[in-house]
Amino acid sequence: MEKIVEQGLLYDFYGELLTAHQKKVYEDFVYHDLSLSEIAEEYDISRQAAHDLIRRCDQTLKKYEDKLGLVARFTRIKEKTAELKQLTAARNNITHNQLTERVNEISNEILTELTRQ
After folding, report:
1. C-alpha 35: how far from its chain's center?
2. Contacts of 113 by beta carbon, 8 Å cutoff, 6+ apart
3. Is-above-0.85 flag for pTM?
4. Quick check: helix, strand or coil at residue 23?
């Protein structure tokens, strides 16, 4: 997964667990595409401090994902949903019974994913 997309997803799921200061700096870096120099100037810190703070935020967000796996779960469900959409679009190429069977299988996989702890 592209790093900036991964950072965005991790922040979307776990960003509220960061401090207010960490959230502001991380949002400026990831969402507003500010450089380390711009962040350093904005928050009156050194460029190295900005870099270290963003790196620590990355590590913290990844630790949450390692423990909770919400982004991975979201990604798997999103892929299954895309597969459902693809199946229904290709319904002329498969029989009604095949379509029904596969939709049921995917639905069960999604339900299992949602109830997994």
Report:
1. 22
2. 73, 76, 77, 80
3. no
4. helix
**Is 76 exposed, middle or buried (CB count within 10 Å of its CB: 0-12, 13-18, 19+)?**
middle
Query: How far apart, in Å, are the Cα atoms of 5 and each of 1, 9, 27, 39, 116?
Result: 7, 6, 13, 20, 25
Q: Tell me the residue ranges of DSSP E strands in 38-108.
A: none
Query: How far apart, in Å, do the first and last CA atoms of the chain sit?
Result: 24
Q: Report whether 19 contacts 26 (CB < 8 A).
A: no
The pLDDT tens digits of the residues spanning 32-87 come to 999 999 999 999 999 999 999 999 999 999 999 999 999 999 999 999 999 988 88
Distance, in Å, from the CA atom of 83 to the CA atom of 108, rounded to the nearest integer, reads 13
- Indicate the DSSP class of residue 34: -
Find the radius of gyration of the CA atoms of the chain.
20
